[in-house]
Amino acid sequence: MISEKRKYLLGILYLTFGLIQIQAKPPIDSPRNDTLQYYSRDAFVQSRDSSFSQTYNPEYERLLDKADRAFRIGLLKRAKKFYNQAATINPNSAYIHYRLREIQNRIGNFNSFILYFNFDKPDLLIRSLTFFILFFVGSMLVILLFILFNRGRMEAIEQRKQILREQYQGLLVDYLFSADSANTIPVEIGKIATSSFNRKILIDQMIDLSINLTGSAKKKLRELFFALKLDKDSIKKAYSFKWHLKIKGFRELAFMDITDANEEIIKCLHRKNEIVRMEAQLALVRLNHDDSFGFLDHLEKPFTLWEQLTVYETIMFHKLPIPQFDRWLYSKNKTIVLFALRMIDVFKQREAYPTLFWLLVNEDAEIRNMTIHNIGNLKIKEALPHLKRLYKNEIYLNYLAIVQAIAKMPDESILNFLKLVIDKEEDVQLQIEAAIAINNMGSLGKLTLQKLMDSDYKNYQIIIKHVLDKRIN
After folding, report:
1. Closest residue by Cα to residue 172 from 202, 193, 195
2. Nearest-angstrom CA–CA distance, 41 and 24
3. Distance CA 283, CA 89 (A)
4. Quick one: what percent of the chain has pLDDT higher than 70?
């Protein structure tokens, strides 16, 4: 009986001393020598008298175990969550209150705040860094092995391609230029082109060969293309959802003059992808035999300068028929109108003037400017009165364009207008262009410039001497 009372008193004193130490605990980052800093739950349990001990359900013990593990590795928010859940079961636990106060102090400490690592016990930090080092080293080795394997694989594929190219080139040349083996070679090629990979190489070789062929040889190659049913491969590519395969299909169909996928190609004129759009335009230029530029009727997206240049090169290289481009001068697509104006100028389609006349009053200044340049380059003198009348309502760039156009088709009827430009305009460039236009009128123009230079009304000597200087002109 005495021993039980003694144990009870000792337990009371130990518990009281522990609570006092908890209240007097210094900040977590300050040095301390007492053992309460890492007070364990077992110490509280052992200090309690068995007659006052309570039995809690396994859930309580499980929550405390989780909280302790989280606390030890520095996951303070997680530990706080489990301690609070345990406190709802045993709200009088001094141990839980101590841990919660410890967590609160640590959360306020900057060293513990970063990533919630406990730098006093950096076990998790060290383990994490070790894991990441091993992970990155392992990843580097895996990537290295993959690169080496892929390099070997690519070399093997390239070697296989080279062997196939040599085989196909020899067979195709024999087929085109040897009458004796013309019947057996398609069978031999068909035996080789059994897989999609082999057929792809064969199509590439036939396309490369067709570029330099004309006449009967090209027709014979096209017949072989159909005999081996390679046209189905190209049409399948044209309908593919992958844009690079679609482009390849367009090119193959264009080179082999296959029109079966024209509807799909026309749909691609409205694609946002500029490369697909340009390849569709080039394919249609070659595949629309009766109307090479018919795609312009369907084009709604901007027709870029690069696309225009590529289409022009296609026309010249393949010697395609040239249409009358005034057909597209009323297009709602401004870029198509500008392209048509450029082509009218390049191909000297002077008969387009009746339509060009109406573009002189177009609401777009850039279209008017190019129209004026076209009229000057085509030397359409019928437009001179209209250019003179429109001059005063134009912008500066179009002033220059009108005077330059007049200079290309000198006419005495416009002499007074040019003299007014020199006299009234303050812009030196305009005055120089007007003087050049007068000078182009021959002897009459030179005489007029001489009179202007001798005049006391205004000093035109610098401008006129500049125009008359043969070293400049």
Report:
1. 202
2. 19
3. 79
4. 80
Q: Nearest Cα to 314, choosing from 331, 333, 292?
A: 292
- What digits encode the pLDDT tens for the residues 280-329? 988 888 888 778 888 888 888 888 898 899 888 888 887 888 889 999 99
Alpha helices, H only, 90-214: 94-107, 110-113, 123-177, 185-192, 196-210
DSSP-based three-state secondary structure for 291: coil
Say how far apart CA 111 and CA 130 lie, in whole Å.
20
pLDDT in tens, 144-177: 999 999 999 999 999 998 998 888 888 888 888 8
CA distances from 38 to 93, 261, 315, 393 (A): 16, 79, 87, 92
Q: At 90, which amino acid appears? A: N
Condensed to tens digits (0 to 9), the pLDDT of residues 59-81 reads 888 888 888 888 887 788 888 88
Distance of alpha carbon 215 from alpha carbon 391, whole angstroms: 54
Q: What is the pTM of this model?
A: 0.61
Torsion of CA 282, 288, 291, 295, to 10 degrees: -50
pLDDT > 90: what percent of the chain?
17
**CA dist., res. 107 & res. 88, Å (int):** 22
The answer to whether residue 130 scores a pLDDT higher than 70 is yes
Task: Identify the CA nearest to 202 among candidates 185, 217, 190, 212.
Answer: 190
Contact 324, 349 (CB under 8 A): yes
The pair of structure tokens assigned to 450 is 């001489």
Residue 293's pLDDT is 85
Q: Residue 69 CA to chain centroid, in angstroms?
A: 51
Distance between CA atoms of 183 and 402, rounded to whole angstroms?
67
The pLDDT of residue 297 is 86
Measured distance CA(354)–CA(258) in Å, rounded: 38
- Residues 312, 300: contact at Cβ < 8 Å? no
> Which among 7, 109, 3 has a CA at the least distance from the CA of 53?
7
Residue 200 has φ and ψ, to the nearest 5°, of -65, -45
Q: Count CA atoms within 13 Å of residue 88 on its CB side.
A: 7
Residues 6 or more apart whose CB falls under 8 angstroms from that of 48 comprise 11, 15
Q: What is the mean pLDDT of residues 113-127?
A: 58
Burial class (CB in 10 A: 0-12, 13-18, 19+), 229: exposed
Contact partners, residue 365, CB within 8 Å, separation at least 6? 394, 395, 397, 398
